[in-house]
Amino acid sequence: MAQTANNDDINVKRDCVLSSLSFYLNEDMDTLVKEYVDIGSREAEADISEMTMGIYTVRMQGDGPGDGRFADVGVVLEGVEVLHNLQSISHACVMLYGLIYAHNLSYPKSLKHTFEVFQKILMELDSTKLSPKVQALQVKLLK
Questions:
Q1: Could you give the angle at which helices 89-102 and 10-24 cross, rounded to 10 degrees?
Q2: What's 127's DSSP letter?
Q3: Other CB atoms closer than 10 Å to residue 13's CB: what's the count?
Q4: Bridge partners of 81?
Q5: Highest taxon of the source (predicted)?
Q6: Is the pTM of this model over 0.70?
Q7: Are 116 and 107 within 8 A, CB to CB?
């Protein structure tokens, strides 16, 4: 997060907000976003084919974390790369949320509160029934 103070790229700041949200909700964003240095490796391709639902990022060697530069960002559903060449992790999260909503899929259990915030606070869909964690966050945001 300290790296974002020197970076004016809005996508880096959005990615930081997403990481902070999952941290606040005691959820591990690493279960959703997998980072790779070189997509050409067989290990990365095998990991992607085994993903049920997630986002992958590819950095070129020499690019550091927090600089907002990716060679590729994509969305994976059921081991199939459904979207690629997205601009940022936050954009990929929005696209993944849209795919989940359009296909009526269940949220990943490890990030159920994060996706509940997307749905009920940000999108204001079914916002009358909130889990205690999400309700506490909403109260803090409204202060």
A1: 60
A2: T
A3: 16
A4: 76
A5: Eukaryota
A6: yes
A7: yes
